[in-house]
Design a protein that fits this description.
single chain, alpha+beta, three-stranded mixed β-sheet, two-stranded antiparallel sheet, 53% helix
Length: 98
């Protein structure tokens, strides 16, 4: 995962961070998201991968929100349409609001 800063147009300061999914190997080579995201969607794994990504940022979330920063993540329609995955996503957001 990679955090990409989101800059406020008002004051040109970092307002939040977008969480980006990345796929690499042990040699440090990184696959383009244009290649692996469609594969994850087609295989039905994008929901689980997104939930794993959110689990990794769970600890960072408290620190970032204490600094007034928000986290953004892209959610696919598959996640919203899958009741089990969507429930897990809602559980994460409930935790995040704490």
């Amino acid at each position: 995962m990679v955090y990409q800063p989101v800059i406020s147009t008002r004051d040109r300061k970092v307002a939040g961070l977008e969480i980006l999914m990345r796929c690499g190997n042990k040699k440090g080579n990184e696959a383009s998201p244009a290649h692996f995201i469609p594969l994850a969607e087609q295989s039905g794994m994008i929901g689980e991968l997104t939930l794993q990504l959110l689990e990794k940022v769970r600890e960072d979330f408290a620190m970032l929100s204490a600094k007034g920063l928000y986290l953004a993540v892209n959610i696919t329609s598959e996640i919203v349409e899958n009741p089990g995955t969507f429930r897990k996503l809602l559980k994460f957001t409930e935790h995040a609001q704490l």
